[in-house]
Amino acid sequence: MDITTLLAENIVQGFIIGLLVGFVVRVASKAVRNLLILQFIGLKYLESRNFIIIDWHRLSNGLIGQQELAIGKAQEMIDTVVEMGIFGVALAAGFLLVQRIGK
């Protein structure tokens, strides 16, 4: 196998996988968003009827200061895609294409 065939194969595989991942992320994010909205509405309803008591101020207690962790994980993911080379570029292109088409 020569290098051009190998590069073309990696580009096609990366693009197809990127398209699939983009589609799955798009569908899953909508489903999770809708589920969270329904749960929030349900909790607010139960709280208004005095079935449960929720301390809303304490819910964010553990999330403050976690920005550095999220930024570090995002940087690791970008580094991994960059290290994958042409496959990573094709994967990112397929993912971005699905995100662009879905708007």
What features would you describe in this structure?
By secondary structure, the protein is mainly α. The protein has one domain (13-55, 68-101). 81% of the residues lie in helices and 0% in strands. It has helices at 3-48, 56-59, 67-83, 86-101. The longest helix has 46 residues, at 3-48. The chain is elongated, with a radius of gyration of 21 Å. The protein starts with a helix and ends with a helix. The model has no long low-confidence stretch (mean pLDDT 79).
Nearest-integer average pLDDT: 79
Structural class: mainly alpha
Uncertain segments: none
Q: State the total count of DSSP E strands.
A: 0
Number of structural domains: 1
Main sheet, how many strands, which sense, barrel? none
Number of helices: 4
- Give the C-alpha Rg: 21 Å
Proportion in β-strands: under 5%
The span between the termini is 40 Å
Portion of residues in helices?
over 70%
Shape assignment: elongated
Helix-strand pattern: HHHH
Q: What are the main properties of this structure?
A:
elongated; mainly alpha; 103 residues; single chain
